[in-house]
Design goal:
- The chain has an 8-stranded mixed sheet.
- Helix content is 35%, strand content 22%.
- It is built from 10 helices and 8 strands.
- The chain is α/β, with parallel strands linked by helices and 249 residues long.
- The radius of gyration is 18 Å and the shape is globular.
- The chain has a single domain, classed as Vaccinia Virus protein VP39 (Rossmann fold), CATH 3.40.50.150.
- The longest helix has 14 residues.
Length: 249
Amino acid sequence: MDAVSQLPLTGERTVPGIVEENYWFRRHEAAYLALRPYCVDAFVLEAGCGEGYGADLLARDAVGVLGLDYDALTLRHVARTYPGVCPARANLAALPVRSAAVDVVVNFQVIEHLWDQAGFLAECRRVLRPGSRLLITTPNRITFSPGRDTPLNPFHTRELAPHELADLLRETGFEVEYLAGLRHGPRLRALDTTLGGSLIDAQVAVAVSGEPWPVPLREAVASVTAADFAITTDDLESSLDIVAVAVRP
């Protein structure tokens, strides 16, 4: 698939098939793969499906996947590219699904974009059947925008620390079943050292400068796979992304 020609790269969403985006794509893919077992034989609603690669991955095991997004161009791309996903346009403040109709709600790297995060989680709780689950990932505020209350990413409205996400889930009526953090595995930690301390910082520096990508950095980014990330419950404060599974009582 030629992702560049099919969907513009705006910086708001990650798309597959672009070497310079491969690190972020694989980082997101790692979470989909880790939480995919929750979606087996389930009816899944992905709230904020973006380019659709994650919804397509989950659709291979699910009974069905409804992919919601607000951007019409993105949804046309999903419909063309991923026939196993049912895309629909929606504002996530009001999910267009009847109450207690869904087995799993997936919300990966989206809640940080929303203004009314508590209202969105209340909507997730409404559409989930009792005993069913919300799967959620979001950048860890402490490591993504260190030392700041205002997110560095212009598309983010509010980023969360691990305890803030857990508190928000409980306040909106969920039971937190699993709280973990995604971080670099051994090979990526070695690449961090090779590139002077941070693979992420090296990519950001090139993006800000507008200079061509150095060959070693481009090759390093192109080599990243989902298996290069680890999801553990250790030292959540230093994780890159927060990973949570919450149950609707």
